[in-house]
Predict the structure.
Amino acid sequence: MINRLIKNIEKTNAPIVVGLDPMLDYVPGHVKERAYGAYGETLEGAAETIWQFNRAIVDATADLIPAVKPQIAMYEQFGVEGVKAFKKTVDYCHEKGLVVIGDIKRGDIGSTSAAYAAGHLGSVQVGSQVLTAFDEDFATVNPYLGSDGVNPFIDVCKKEKKGIFVLVKTSNPSSGELQDRTADGRPLYEHVGELVAKWGSDCMGDSYSYVGAVVGATYPEQGKVLRSIMPKAFILVPGYGAQGGKGADLVHFFNEDGLGAIVNSSRGIIAAWKQEKYREKGIGEENFADASRLAVLDMIDDIAGALGTK
């Protein structure tokens, strides 16, 4: 799957991923009204709202992007109906030819980790049938329980030719409370980066590993160090846009081949219709997905400018 992700990036010339992290506040009123009219102000109505919102954004941007990243918590908050919307979103994005990164941040041990890996990336045996559940292409994994929590995912990746992105240095402001702690004279995130490189060395695609890393755009200097520690790991870079990351911050996340990283923007794209810069172009609630398309184009241009690939 890492090979396919790279092919999609090369085809679109857009090393970006759209984070499908819908909150009801991001959804225009007419979309909510239609869903509530059909299902009431219920969990089912909320799930229908975010599904219709996602579909419109995917329709408007799919030809420009290589991948999407739905964050499962935004769906789980609506219970079983929300999880159904998550699955519908994954399937629809696959129909559009997009790589799907399931942002699930799972991290447990033993049979529990194996079950998460099977549910999101692999398959389960039901009687005589072998069935897939969520069927994402990649998943985000929390490594802070150690190798016991990561190895079951790697086993599934080898079998299914899928991938993971391991949390190494996250974009949130308090990440340093733990990730920057010194161990043996070096920050903890550097030790985790070394583990990522080790785990990935045993499951390579053509040029990059199935085992990637999550490193926030808000920490460009740390990203530079981690790029050298993990030369064969693709880096998923959150924190662009709404969290403060800019194209100029991202240069060192990429390798000399122009690959090696994919940059995420969530609310900066899916809630772009709320931004004044797009409202000034005559885009409002009714054509909210057009604002998302323009936001993707602006992001592509910003990153290309920073990388010198315009």
In short: The longest strand covers residues 99-106.
